[in-house]
## 1
Amino acid sequence: MEPPLFTPGELLCLGSSLAFSGLFYYLYRKKTRVVARIQEAPKLQVDDDLPALVSAADGRCLPYVALEGIVLPAKAVLTSHYHERLQGVIQKLLLKEHRLVWNSLARSWSESERVLSEQVYTVPFLLASPDTEAVTQVSVESPLRAVCLPLEVVYERFQQPAHGFRDLLGQYLSGEKPKGILETEELLRVGAGLTGIGELALHPDGSLHLQPPSQGADYFLCLGDWQTVLEELESASGLWKGAAMLCAAAGLAILLHALCRAFLRARLRQQREDKELDSEEAGDGGLEDSCVICLSRPRECVLLGCGHICCCFRCFQALPARLCPICRGPIDRVVPLYQA
């Protein structure tokens, strides 16, 4: 029975590599499209010429722009819990527990974390021009729908628990050891430079609004300029591309390995068949030309007067009687046989 081209393990690895390669390529293409759209988007700054520019667009809306400005609160403002002088418009309070978990397979402790509490607060805020004489302001809508929040850490404290002997004994028996609790506060501060990438619309009351794109494109808010977002997306795109190529190369290696193995099997089978055929031909030739007495040496003489060619000269000399081994007729004389 002919063995299958792929073993079950190879089929599993080949299917997995192709599936992951397709997934990573899809993510790479998605990131590439986002990068291309950001590169093509108009790069604007908040100034007094902005309302006229948006008003001249179709539907008084620019579908996708990169807008730079300074963060200002619309009305109320958020104050840091730990620094009274710090004020912001988005605040995130995070409480995270860090633990060490025993990995019996690796025979070592590995770190894990668990979010105990996460609170996000936001107030309406605007993007304004760095020029104090400009009066145009843009309202930033739905900041929590952005791909990631443009926050910076303003407070961080790690609290380590105190362990007694009984606690340590229980931790080693349970395989879990609390490492500590990390408390952080992140803030989008008033006065920070912010770049928003999304839809810019002029409302009937004359106010400008930066909002998530209605066509389903990604909505970005980031500290710094638009090139920061672009570099991060290009880095992620390159990562997905490399992962897709690596998985495709793994699948190709498995395929080539199976094909080479099948080729070697066919080659060995052909060599074996050729060898058997040569042996059969050599065997047939040996039976026809070999001495009928010893079956090993070639026939070397002609027995007269019957004329049979049936034995080698050594076996002829060893005959007990001068009779032909074939017809049992008397042998008058022997003539050597010469084969050209």
## 2
Amino acid sequence: MAQRGEAETLPLHPALSRVSSSSSRARAAAAVRPGPDPLLVICRCFSFVTSLTAILCVAVNVLSAVRSFKDGSDVFDGIFRCYAVVVAFIVVVAETEWGFVIKFWKILEYWAGRGMLQIFVAVMTRAFPDYSSNQKELVLLQNIASYMLLACGLVYVISGILCIGFLKRARQKKEITREQAVKDLELCNYVLAGPSLCGGHGMI
């Protein structure tokens, strides 16, 4: 009975105790990492749609510029379309929220400013439509692209006025901080658990 009691009070193997502590850290890391923020998911989806719409505006204005220069009917319209392509490309880059771009165009960080730029591109895309019979398809694409980007711009302006953009940036910073904490915890688990597991196999 004494031997049995002594066996029950024996401490755990060091490798096993380290494994158990590492597993508890892994569970803690899983608890720290929650599910994706619904607001950020919606914002990313909307940003993706806006980027696609701006790319469509770029394509439409490129086609319009090529036709204007090729036919020689309206050179000024071709130059106007070239400017529309450049501004629409800025809209696409702004949706990536690239730090280099935001650094030089600080206004694009705010949703109201970004929405006004999108509305401006939509107006440029819709301007000077050619209703000739041989360009009905191009005019239809211009209408689709301009009205879609106009709707995206209005949503951005309204959301910016309601401070949803500020809320999105705050949650994004919080998510980045949480992900960094999880990565640090996982790195700590890897450093502590790796040698203990190898040592445990060697001792058993």
## 3
Amino acid sequence: MNWIKINNIRWKTIENILFVIAILSLIGLTIVIFSMEKLKLEGTLIVGILTAFVSTMEISATIKQSSKNTFINTITIARKEYMAELRKAVEEFCVTAERNDNDRLKELSYKLKLLMNPADKDNEHWDRKAIEMIDKIVQAENKTEDIDSFITLMQSWLALEWHGMREEAKKGIMSKEDKKTLLDTEYSKYTEWMEEKDNGQE
């Protein structure tokens, strides 16, 4: 993802150069105006200076928005790739668990855990809960019920990623507070659904 930073730096540099050009043009033309004696030329030059300055600012704003859109699109693509990889890893893990192939199951458990971040305190319900369930499935003799619970968690996780992706596509990068609200809302939906399943109400 380093190329994203490089791209943003490049656009920022171009924006700064355009701004400097506009300022220098303004200063240079102002000096020329004061050195000229004809009022008509002064008026024309002032209009020209202002037009050049406004145009440069508009170009700068367009470049900035384009850079922001590129960044958001890149994040959206990365999210889609992550969701596809996570879905595939969960599928392989659950199928292998049902077959009781414990050696392969351990391999896949490592692969799944590497897609998670238990150290993220804002995301602890999801990642830590998933890792706890993965370990439980690997160690359990009868894995069926644990697999079902794990699949439900991962379905909710994928729904969470989808909602986050849609919000960022509409509004741009989400604030920390918005992310936290989304995480808590989706986790509440998950826990409510699990309670209904446990009570046989689904």
## 4
Amino acid sequence: MSASNQQDQQLWTPEEPQNLPDSPLSRAFSQPLMLGLFLPLQTGGWSQSTLPRGTDWSFEYNKRLTQQAENLGFDIAFGLSQWLPKGGFGGETGYRENFLDPFVSAVALASATRRILLMGTIHILYGPWHPMHLAKFLATADHISQGRFGANIVTGYAENEPKMFGVTRGDHDRRYAQSAEFTRICNALWSGVDNLTYKGEFYNLEEAYVSPRPLYGRPVLATASGSPAGFDYASKYSDVVFVSSPAGEKLEDALPKLPAHVATVKNAAAALGRKIRVIINPTIIVRPTREEAFAYYQAIMDHADLGAIGSFSARHKAGDSQSWLEHSARGRAVGGHLHVVGSPEDVAEQLGQLHAAGIDGIQITFYDYEPELAYFGESVIPLLEQAGLRHAVQPEA
């Protein structure tokens, strides 16, 4: 039978991949502290600084990084999405002028990897997106990746981005209400119980069907938010929620406030009988000694691209995001929700503190990706394993 045409109808829901013990998501969730790599798919990566480095936005560079991360045992590789005018954020670096699409990039990376989860960000409210599109595209990506594909579904906080698509940014909470209906429809289509006829507040479908079925119930779903409406959405529909620091980029300021911040979304999910994982994005600067690490950290700050930082800050203030509210403009030179700086022992200890505060995973950014990722793998991951924060992962053959 088909679903009835009632806006408040109970749509079919698929099995969640985390409930299936052989799913790639369950494997990632078995780690005490998940490791993710935030890919630099955009000019300048995550750091608005002119200090020389090799970080590059090209696909080949990001493919090498993803393969490197997979061999180090990382669980997730993930990309950001933004829509920017000519020149990006400008400045000396032309920050984020070039920007590979994270969804397409993640699909392409599936054929170059074997174990790591791949996620791409999608602004589902921009342009003529329909749940049928996303349900079909994600089911296809799920099969290409053998269940390793996920979508970070975002509503878009920026004021100017929707205008590029000829639409006006909607009210903050109403955007999440629309996203919730969008996701419920996708879940019903992934369930594949029957043709779906549905008349809702935002979307209508008549005798709609999508095949094939995803391999593990549905694709992995994530969201990034810091607002009550965003946390409510995440508690109902997401496997992973990306949070920002509620107290700026300094770890010592964030740690006292993180437990309550994290508990808000975890408790909301638990009340619905669900369990979600919370991930945060630190920029990690690790050197053999604490002194070397802080000298490098200061050098990045001393070369801040002030023009790009000014443009970025102005854009964020014009939006209605409830994340990044306490972050300093100068901290953008380094980037990341948090700055984790020090020797390998210092960094391992700080990551342990994040885990103790309720963080289930870290989505890492580096300043100079390839050498810094390699040194992190060589120097920090063994310490995380010794501390019980990571289970050893065998490199891919």
